[in-house]
Amino acid sequence: MLYFAYGSNLNHFQMKRRCKDSKFLKKINLNNFRLTFRSRYRAADIDAMKNSIVPGGLFEISKSDEKKLDVYEDYPILYKKYYFTYYGKKVMTYTMVGKTPFAFPTERYLNIVKRGYKNCKLDQKYLKKALR
After folding, report:
1. Which H helix or E strand runs over 117?
2. What domain range is 8 assigned to?
């Protein structure tokens, strides 16, 4: 199955630890969405927004990896699944159920996300924009 990571799961070390079968395929953009941070966890989330993009990592994951991610993402309480099509293939990602106001991420969490941006060779300008 294909999985789109846009927050801390971009971090290859963390993703491997969490999902042993996962393989990073390439970086892709999710169009008409923007990155934000919210909830009492101050974690990454995405919102629909015209003419905006969220850069992320496309991973191949197994069924058991998906089950582990579901637990980590507190699915379906904190996050729900969102599916989109990328070149004719179905891709799964998570988006928060409760759309609370912006909350600046913790330094520790932000550093994990920044490392993930480097791992996936993503443009940090989108991350900086989300933090404004």
Report:
1. helix 107-119
2. 2-125
